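In the previous lecture we treated proteins in isolation. Real proteins rarely work alone, and many bind small molecules. This record shows how such a complex is specified: first the sequence, then the SMILES for flavin-adenine dinucleotide.
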Amino acid sequence: MNAPYWILSSEGESYEPLTEDLSTDYLIIGGGLVGITTLYLLTKAGLKASLIDATRIGYGTSGRNTGKATAQHGYIYSRIEKNYGFEKAKQYYTINAKAMQFIEDVSKEYGIDSQFKKLPAYLFTQDEDYVDKLKKEFDLYQRMGIDSSFEKEIPVPLRVRCALKMNNQAQFHPKRFLDALAKQAVKQGGKIYEKTRVVDFQPGKECIISIENGKKIAAKKVIIASHYPCYDGKGFYFARLKPERSYIVGVELDSFPEAHMINIEQPAISLRYIPEEKVLMVSGEAHKVGHQDEDHYQKLKDLAKDIFNTDAVKYQWSAQDYISHDYVPYVGVINDDLKNVFVATGFRKWGLTNSIASAMVISNLIMDNGSEYEDLFTHLRVKDFLSFNFLKENADVAVQLLGGKLQMGKPDLPEEKETGVKVNINGKRCGYYRDDEDNIHIVDTTCTHMGCEVKWNSQEKSWDCPCHGSRFNYTGHVLEGPAELHLNSYKEPKNTINPQIS
Ligand SMILES: Cc1cc2nc3c(=O)[nH]c(=O)nc-3n(C[C@H](O)[C@H](O)[C@H](O)COP(=O)(O)OP(=O)(O)OC[C@H]3O[C@@H](n4cnc5c(N)ncnc54)[C@H](O)[C@@H]3O)c2cc1C
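The predicted 3D structure, ligand included, written as tokens:
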């Protein structure tokens, strides 16, 4: 049942896996919105570019979000102004507004049925403690010349203290948009290979990328658009990104005002209507990956029942995104010593416009040798890097790394089906899962990214890593995150750990 509306309602083309060695000028790793938009922009300019994806394009977080295209990214502008000044805050707005315009223009140009619709976005609070923050943010909106207003109410039956209304924002169908953009990129000469997972990355004047079937790709320039960078390049992204999982339920609702909305405080409440389907997406319940195993869907269903008196649930799914140390994405060269490798990550659940913005910045860096937004997004910015939260996150990784190793598994194999349990088999801690047909799957529970212990996620029936957010299904196959290698079965040798840092 946990399948996103976006994927269910856009079949898209299938692309063959790469079965031979390949040499290309530009290789894009990852077919989410960052990767596909970059492929589109590079091939539109006549460059020779190929894209590979571990699974299928648009099946990552770009096909699992709430489809809001907006420059209202929660409480962001005051943060940027505080850290980097007014001009940088304005730049962040400008490039995200451009990205929104890109979605509208491209949808029109190619006649994409992307459900693009303009409407206002609201950022509200129900908590008195946040009123001043919203006032401050509104003052900045005005100084930046954003078409907006300060409101006492929002157009749904929720009591709020106040809200910021940003006009002329939008919503769209991200998967249909992505599928159509991919098709256009292929028409322009781009190549797409699905089911082609990177398992090793060797940087150099010409980078050599190994894929799962043993084939190799030689590329002069590489764009890492794998959401969490599948190669770190000594950029220390593994220490800068916090993986956060969030949940969405889609409930049937006859009508909803033309707007979408989100609160500023936690727990998050995000509302976005799909008029074409008469379904309201209620989302929130965010937590660090591998850190909570509760019925988050039920909490959202209860919320939908409370506010809108509906319990007709049509969809539910979850997804994750990565949060940078100062809430601004990292986009640009992966590090200063590797000028031919580019990365875009850390979108903080606002990656639909930010991913298009990233593709624009990277394309400019490649084609024009520079971008006016380079400094805004560079990973070299250090403000807030040693903030309390950031230190706490990395201390948590150490706790998970060591703490996980001290736990022993259960001595007996459990009877229950479809539940992952840590068991101890001949002194070896393993992850045990009995499927509905009584087949038993036992995996080594050491994450293949950096060696932390994975934990069972009962909502998605997956083994999730609490350190950097890698996820594996019960047979041990990588679902997402930085890990590139699968979990071995307990009969095989121990897992190989490959952090892909240097
Ligand atoms: C619950 C939720 C709701 C959201 N809602 C919104 C919203 O309303 N508006 C908004 O602006 N943003 C939203 N976002 C954020 C946004 O969806 C993401 O930031 C954005 O889609 C990320 O795009 P991407 O291209 O970086 O990653 P993805 O779409 O995840 O694509 C990455 C691709 O890389 C591939 N890949 C990974 N590893 C490898 C490898 N080793 N080899 C080859 N390929 C690999 C994957 O298979 C995948 O297809 C939301 C996020 C969440 C979690």
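Summary for your notes: The chain has ten helices and 24 strands. The pocket of flavin-adenine dinucleotide is lined by residues 29-35, 52-55, 59-62, 65-68, 197-198, 225-227, 230, 246, 248, 283, 319-321, 347, 349-353, 355, 484 (CB under 6 Å).
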